[in-house]
Amino acid sequence: MTENRALAYGRIVRTLRAVGPVKLWPPEEACIREAADALLFCDDLVEDSAARNALDLAAGLVQHLIDAERWTAENARRLLDDIWACGPWGVLDHRAA
């Protein structure tokens, strides 16, 4: 785990605390937490189908929150960016180089 991944995870936790049950149902919060956890502990997204699935579900949830006008597009995308930042992208970039 890198510092950037840990910082992204911390932003997600703070966001979830800030919005609480007013803006997210418990299953929605669980979906976000599962995606963040899966990506944070993922070493290889290509091989980790559970992490890919969790990310897909979170992305679908974020789009639903925007479409239902429950979250602004800016806030929802910021959350998705933080979920994405929990992943092993630096490792993937390094392998490609």
Provide the helix percentage: over 70%
| Beta strand % | under 5%
Uncertain residue ranges? 91-97
Return the string of H and E elements: HHHHH
The rounded Rg comes to 13 Å
Integer average pLDDT: 90
| Backbone shape | globular
Q: Number of helix segments?
A: 5
Query: How many E-type strands?
Result: 0
What is the structural class? mainly alpha
Give the total of domains: 1
Characterize the structure shown.
The protein has helices spanning 3-23, 26-40, 49-67, 73-85, 89-96. It has one domain (3-96). The protein is mainly alpha-helical and 97 residues long. The protein is built from five helices and no strands. The two termini are 20 Å apart. The chain is globular.
Short description:
The chain has 97 residues and is mostly helical. 78% of the residues lie in helices and 0% in strands.
